[in-house]
Amino acid sequence: MIFDKMVELDYEQLVFCHDGASGLKAIICIHDTTLGPALGGARMWNYETEEEAIQDVLRLARGMTYKNAAAGLNLGGGKTVIIGEAPKEKSEAFFRALGRYVNSLSGRYITAEDVGTTVADMDFIYQETPYVCGISESYGSGGNPSPMTAYGVYTAMKRTAKEAFGDDSLQGKTVALQGVGNVSYSLCEHLHEEGASLIVTDINQDSIERAVNDFGAQAVGIEEIYEVDADIFAPCALGGILNDDTIPNLKVKAVCGSANNQLLEDDRHGKMLQEKGIVYAPDYVVNSGGVINVADELQGYNGERAKDKVKEIYNQMDKIFNIAKRDGVTPAAAADRLAEERIDSMMRVKSTFSQNEVTTLSRR
Ligand code: NAD
User: Fold this and answer.
1) Where are the beta strands (DSSP E) in the chain?
2) Percentage of residues in the chain with pLDDT exceeding 70?
3) Are 113 and 119 in contact (CB under 8 A)?
4) Could you tell me the sign of the dihedral formed by the alpha carbons of 132, 309, 300, 87, in that order?
5) Does residue 146 line the site of ligand 1, with CB under 6 A?
6) Fold match flag (2-62+77-139 vs 146-338)
7) Distances, alpha carbon 93 to alpha carbons 90, 128, 138, 179, in Å
8) Which fold, 146-338?
9) CATH class of the domain comprising 2-62+77-139
10) Which of 5, 25, 67, 79 is catalytic?
């Protein structure tokens, strides 16, 4: 059954990791290393069944292949899921055991933080392997990725505005933001500086007040955010929020935000937005500033260089909108095509030169 799934979507490797002493139970999945070593975070979650954990790691690793490829990174896609309750079941020994498993893959897979894991956990992994990103700044990382993610969202939003309004200036535009957390607050700074008006909502009253005080944002209720008179909607909190209930209410001309998996159903809801004349900026490209920033650690982190790479999201969005027009598909489908075309072209290069070995990258 597992091989059927691996064959169906062309997975390279699944590694089941167990360490009796620390209680570690983890699964590392490498989906595709055509463009380079597989980079993707380690997610700790209390999965009810092993089947659920396997499904999740397969889905997430493949997602990283597309995200890294569409972001223009020379990296493949992979992921780790750790079965357990965070932080209760964590220990130094636990993450060092995982670090030894990552190291045993000799650079085919590079891990990082994800849901349920922290910088401190990555530091433990780093004691065992150089194939880890998102470690402490004192070890040479770029620190909190949220400002860089936000800068990427801002860059993507400019290119999306050009698509929707014919001009990439955000001056005088009204942006409705769902959630004003780490990424979104930093995004608000860029938008405010450019002269955009902001409408915000959050479940946390303090976050709303901060945006109102700092940027003169207009605060609205949780459900109202879908219906406000704005130019651009920026979902920066939750997944699945573009669906049958919300899309009919949207008055905006574009959607561009940091949240993952915004479309409840990729194909159907992507088309629904298109039919309403709303330009949708594919979330996994929009929010790729975080992974671009963390991946820069592999060359010895340089903030300026990382920012330059994040700026490239503008050009990646350009390619996506062009593919969408060329093939008559939604931008969400075009982002997948961009990733697939990049991987296919590299496969041709590899077969031409018979170089199937994976280039390894690490911080040491
Ligand atoms: P965060 O937790 O700091 O911010 C999320 C905000 O959304 C919080 O202020 C929270 O109170 C608010 N929120 C939660 N439920 C809400 C609701 N129903 N309505 C309105 N607001 C609600 O998280 P973040 O790091 O800013 O990330 C935001 C999104 O971007 C997440 O979906 C995350 O997966 C994605 N993302 C973040 C990064 C990054 O670098 N942090 C990178 C890629 C993707």
Assistant:
1) 13-19, 24-32, 38-39, 42-45, 76-83, 109-110, 174-178, 197-201, 218-219, 232-235, 254-255, 279-280
2) 96
3) yes
4) negative
5) yes
6) yes
7) 8, 11, 22, 36
8) Rossmann fold (3.40.50)
9) alpha beta
10) 79
Does ligand 1 lie within 6 Å of residue 2's CB atom?
A: no
**Secondary structure element (H or E) that encloses residue 53, with its range:** helix 50-70
- Alpha helices (H) in 254-312, listed in sequence order: 266-275, 283-286, 289-295, 303-311
Map out the domains of the chain as residue ranges: 2-62+77-139, 146-338
Q: What is the pLDDT of residues 53-100, one digit of tens each?
A: 999 999 999 999 999 999 999 999 999 999 999 999 999 999 999 999
Task: Find, among 42, 50, 191, the residue nearest to 124 by Cα.
Answer: 42
Nearest CA to ligand 1 atom 20: 202
The pLDDT of residue 353: 63
Is 79 catalytic? The answer is yes
pLDDT at 265: 97
Whether ligand 1 lies within 6 angstroms of the CB of 203 is answered as yes
